[in-house]
């Protein structure tokens, strides 16, 4: 049984595995024959980056190491996330095997943390460009380059003062030819994360892994977490993507 992992949103400081709108996809996934796994990760009030990605990678290793026990297919693992969870899903997708973002003390250090398909719904990617993209769009969005921003709280310092650390947290930094397929959606009216984050990320992925492995859809008029992302039709799109990249790979 193929599996995909749900990573919840919540701006890095709130939420848990039961609180995401992505739970709406659960029954449809089960009906398609998937194992559906929801995970928690340490929030920014508990630990700073890279603890969050350490936790997600540890969960992937645990599932792969114990796949036989759970009747799962260990080779085929997908990950889906929205907002902060979309960011973590994207980072997992590009940083497979990157030891700098692993924490072997969390267990199963000899097991791969790579995934075979990624769904990123309106996640941030490059914290350093968020403010300028809102300016370019004429959208009065949430400010990122201040010490009180959610991204700065995640990193433990005003992000404008730590460009090197921001680069280490950016999924684009780790893009490589062996990255999995990506399904990316974002809305043009998002006031939390500018849609250009997804446009730029998808563009950089396509250069390296090719157009056929990157699906990007910009939804006109959609805001952050709007219902357009969770309609029956859109859930079918997401599951069709997983079918194509997990069940037939």
TrEMBL record:
<dbReference type="GO" id="GO:0016491">
    <property type="term" value="F:oxidoreductase activity"/>
</dbReference>
<protein>
    <submittedName>
        <fullName>Alpha/beta hydrolase</fullName>
    </submittedName>
</protein>
<dbReference type="InterPro" id="IPR002227">
    <property type="entry name" value="Tyrosinase_Cu-bd"/>
</dbReference>
<dbReference type="InterPro" id="IPR049492">
    <property type="entry name" value="BD-FAE-like_dom"/>
</dbReference>
<dbReference type="Pfam" id="PF20434">
    <property type="entry name" value="BD-FAE"/>
</dbReference>
<dbReference type="InterPro" id="IPR029058">
    <property type="entry name" value="AB_hydrolase_fold"/>
</dbReference>
<feature type="domain" description="Tyrosinase copper-binding">
    <location>
        <begin position="179"/>
        <end position="190"/>
    </location>
</feature>
<dbReference type="InterPro" id="IPR050300">
    <property type="entry name" value="GDXG_lipolytic_enzyme"/>
</dbReference>
<keyword id="KW-0378">Hydrolase</keyword>
<dbReference type="GO" id="GO:0016787">
    <property type="term" value="F:hydrolase activity"/>
</dbReference>
